[in-house]
Amino acid sequence: MHIEVRNLNKQFGDFHAVRDVSFTIEKGHLIGLLGPSGGGKTSILRMLAGLETPTSGDIEFLGKRVNDLPPQERGIGFVFQNYALFKHMSVFDNIAFGLKIKKQTKEQIRERVMELVELTGLKGFEHRYPHQLSGGQRQRVAFARALAPEPQLLLLDEPFAAIDAKIRTELRTWLKELIERVGITSIFVTHDQEEAIEVADEIMIINKGRLEQKGTPWDIYKSPETPFVAGFIGESTIVENVGAIRGFEDATKIPGTKALIRPEYIEIGKPGEIRLASAAMDGRVKHLHFRGSEWMVELEVGSSKLITYRSLEKEVLHPGEQLSVLVHRAYLFNDSDSWIMENKLKEDPMPIHI
Amino acid sequence: MNFMFRSRWWSFGFRSTVMLYFLLLVVIPIIGIYTQSFSLGWKPFYESVSDPLAWKAVLLTVKLAFIAAVINILIGTMIGWTLNRYKFAGRRLLNSLVDLPFALPTAVGGLMILLLLGPNSFVGNIADKLGFQIVFHEPAIVVAMIFVTFPFVIRAVQPLLEEMDKSEEEAAYTMGASKTKTFLQIIFPSMLPGVLSGGMLAFSRALAEFGAVVLVAGNIPGKTLIASVFIYGEIESDNSQGAAAVSIILLTFSFIILWIVSRVQARRSSK
Amino acid sequence: MKKLWIPLTYSIFLILIIVPLARILTGAWSDGWNGFANALSRPEALHALLMTGLITIVVTIINTLFGVMLSLYLVRAEWLPEKLKQLLNSVLDLPFAVSPVIGGLMIVLLLGPNTALGALLNDVGISIVYAFPGMVIATLFVTFPMMVREIMPVLQEIGTSQEEAASTLGAYSWYTFWQVTWPAIRWGVIYGVVLTVARCLGEFGAVLVVSGNIINKTQTATTLVYQDVENFNVTAANGVALVLAAVSVGLLLLMEWAKKRKEVH
Fold first, then answer.
1. How big, in percent rounded to 5, are the helix, strand and coil portions of chain C?
2. Which site among C30, C68, C105 would you substitute to test the B interface, given the most B Cβ atoms closer than 10 Å to its Cβ?
3. Is B211 on the interface with C (CB under 8 A)?
4. What number of other Cβ atoms are within 10 A of residue B21's Cβ?
5. Is A258 inside any structural domain?
6. Does the CB of A312 have a partner CB in chain C at under 8 Å?
7. Which conformational region is residue A64 in: left (phi greater than 0), alpha (psi within -120 to 50 degrees), or beta?
8. Where in the sequence is the domain holding A72, given as residue range(s)?
9. pLDDT per residue over A38-86, tens digit each?
């Protein structure tokens, strides 16, 4: 289902939960609403579902304004954070609930429920009650229940929040595959960036009620549009004194500019190991942390601290050791602007234009 | 059926009916009694209240209800504690019996006390020989009040004991605190809100009690006539303004207590 | 300490509850089976029990219906401002704080024969005070908070998410109520019904004031007990009291059962 949202606002008393949010969603896409807790993601989801009324703004499904449509008539499926399974109904009855309302025949209901039970791998559990199921199974039931009436749009509120970290990854892949197979437009809310990046076709970053950026996970990672997005996605350290970083001296032209540097922007090596030695500067290893598959290296460069990773295959470093540090690129920002800058000294001093 | 109830008119009708019912049944009568007591102006109000029989009845009620509440706090705390912390034969039975005074008609409660302590009864005879009287005197009123308000403190203390974190208590033991010290410094303070709100509810209920008391009090004006019986007498003698005047004193008292209790409970649940 | 507290608890129960209960039992039998049967088969006793039964049925039905709806509104309604909800919530408890005698007085003051409304209704041939309707109103007033106080916490505890889930699945409020909300609150409602019945049977003060205690007309079981005691007919009083006490004990057992079911679900 094609969705368009324009200038959506939601106020709870004095609290402005959602501010001027606009976006469109293409049919069949899987969208992740990502952001810190209390940022307004769930409010947006609930307004799409019709469980909350927008203070102002329009929501359109397939070009039709649905603001005044109650949730019953929006053709959506909603998976709640705590699943909200009907406690006194068996798995079968939970899934059949929406179908019974549609006044389908017993035979039709049975068929559809069994199809979903099969699809969600709940076979053999149809007659259990929610309290007899594990967290992951409950989530599957919630999912099957939401899908049963064949909604046009699936909304999921923190679908994995209440599940053990171990099964979470497994369930994530399962959900992504299933949504692809069913081919339903879906929006899910999460505060876990790893989850959003892994599952979503497109991510919308929501902070303090505002939509900060919308794009594919790769776009958002590669070119964040706001300092918040840059800091929220991926790992990074903020350097206040940009002038001290070799190759970025120009950035000090505008006072108050800070740099956000990701670990993978940094190359380190023993003196002489780095090819572009002219763009590198001296640093010292402050701490080393073993991270299972690699070393995390805390560096001290002048008064600034940087963080990067080093492969286990390379020669082992020791705290206190002197190193060459090359910063390839940095995300620079000040109060009014933000941009990505490459290391100036890395460029050939005499470029040849072809 | 379904679409009928979907209609706005239906839900509007339901809402207004329920709210109107609420207003008519609870709010209007209470407003009515306040206006009635001042219906003839301040002076008659003052006169009805300052009638020595009236204020003696109110004072007596407050005094006896207070004694009953204090006794209830003592035995209620103890019973609540015993029923929750010790395992013994018959515990569940006793726990169910706690509610009996709520389930039993108060008039039946009054009759029980009358039979048990009254003239010609075993206890009544002994007391008579020792030279003090129970029934138709203050002790019987207190006993009736205790009986009727018996469950309040116990039922207020029990949930607190249940939700209390045992590790707090154990922490105190590991730090070398004695059992008594632990009880006084760790356990009792967390029971206190229940003890107080239960005690106040018991007090307010004892102030209002009529059925059990009227049968055992003897109702001698100025001596064993409590406020609610006094009000009843005024109604019977067709002095509704006077009855209303004494009523609002009693009512205001109860409302204040109720308000304090709900404050205490609100503070507790917001913690 | 344990050795002290348990016997002490037992003795308080014995003195305060068990012995008095036993005393009613023996009291009703002090003149043998005949005394008990005679006390109960008096026409006024039968009529009083009938009155009590009728009042209990009518009040329980009305109180349950309105109690369930009012709790739904007080917990769920979005059309009630939060502040007003809190106010209504505290007003709700007032009948608990009002002495039953005063509750009865209120009704006499508002609807008695000397009031405008009462006179008006009297002209049309409806008498409220000193008649059945007034007794029902008085009992409704007294039992009003019981149902609501049982259901509201349950509604708060189950939260709104199951109902919201039902609405996203296409169910409207009526269907949602019966399929989703009702199964969750039903044991609370049953518990509330038992409490209401117990209170209706036992109501004395308010009914005494409103009914005028007219033999064979508006006398209820409890007011009959009162009158018998006043007339020094203690054995007769015992007979009716025993019936009431037996029903109360039965209700107490029901309460225990409902409480247990409530906890399971």
1. 80, 0, 20
2. C105
3. yes
4. 17
5. yes
6. no
7. beta
8. 3-232
9. 889 999 999 999 999 999 999 999 989 999 899 999 999 999 988 899 9
Helices A91-101 and A135-147, axial angle in degrees (round to 10):
20
Residue C239 contacts B, CB cutoff 8 Å: no
pLDDT tens string C52-91: 999 999 999 999 999 999 999 999 888 888 888 888 888 8
R_g over Cα of chain B = 23
Are residues B239 and B214 part of one domain? yes
Angle at A159 between CA A46 and CA A163, to 5 degrees: 145
Same domain, residue pair A71 and A172? yes
- Best probe of the B interface among C16, C65, C96, C102, by most B CBs < 10 A, is C102
pLDDT, position A133 = 93
Q: Which residue of A has its CA nearest to C183?
A: A88
Residues B227 and B258 in one domain: yes
- Listed by number, the residues of chain B in 41-70 with a beta carbon closer than 8 Å to a beta carbon of chain C are none
Establish if B253 belongs to a structural domain.
yes
For residue C27, how many C-alpha atoms fall within 13 Å in the half-sphere facing its CB?
29
**Tokens at C108, concatenated:** 């006499």
Taking CB atoms and an 8 Å cutoff, what residues of chain C touch B105?
201-204, 221-222, 225, 241, 244-245, 248
Task: Collect contacts of C50-55 with beta carbons under 8 A, ≥24 apart.
Answer: C51/C132, C51/C135, C51/C218, C51/C219, C51/C220, C51/C221, C52/C200, C52/C201, C52/C220, C52/C221, C52/C222, C54/C132, C55/C132, C55/C135, C55/C136, C55/C139, C55/C200, C55/C203, C55/C207, C55/C220
> Domain for residue A197, yes or no?
yes
Window C:169-198, CB contacts with A under 8 Å: 169-172, 175, 179-180, 183-184
Helix then strand then coil, % of chain A, to nearest 5: 30, 30, 40
Nearest alpha-carbon partner for B244 in C96, C104, C129: C104
Splitting chain B (271 residues) into consecutive groups of 10 residues, what average pLDDT does each group show?
56 87 89 83 82 89 95 94 88 88 91 85 80 83 94 92 82 82 84 90 91 88 89 88 87 86 75 55
Tell me the two tokens of residue A68: 């005044």
d(CA A61, CA A152): 9
How far away is chain B from the Cα of C256, in angstroms, using its nearest Cα? 7
Please answer whether residues A226 and A213 qualify as being in contact, where contact means their C-beta atoms are separated by less than 8 angstroms.
yes
Q: Show the tokens assigned to C216.
A: 């064979």
Beta-strand relationship, A281-290 and A322-327: antiparallel
Domain that holds residue B68: 51-270
For chain A of 354 residues, list the mean pLDDT of each consecutive stretch of 10: 92 90 92 90 93 93 91 92 91 94 92 92 92 91 92 91 82 87 91 89 93 92 87 85 81 82 87 77 89 88 87 86 88 83 71 52
Same domain for A71 and A180? yes
Q: Is this complex scored with an ipTM above 0.90?
A: no
- A129 lies within 8 A of chain C by CB: no
Asked if the Cβ–Cβ distance from C162 to A98 is below 8 Å, we say: no
Q: Report if pTM > 0.80.
A: yes
Q: How many CB atoms lie within 10 A of CB A329?
A: 18
Task: Measure CB to CB from residue C66 to each of B21, B79, B255 and give the nearest one.
Answer: B21
| Distance to chain A for C169, nearest Cα, Å | 5
Please tell me whether residue A151 adopts helix, strand or coil conformation: coil
Find tokens 């005698």 and name the residue: C101
The amino acid sitting at C11 is S
Chain B closest-CA separation from residue C139 CA (Å): 11
Same domain, A110 and A87: yes
List, as ranges, residues 118-177 from C with C-beta within 8 Å of B.
Answer: 137, 140-141, 144, 172-175
Interface-testing mutation among C163, C168, C261, with chain A (most A C-beta atoms within 10 A): C168
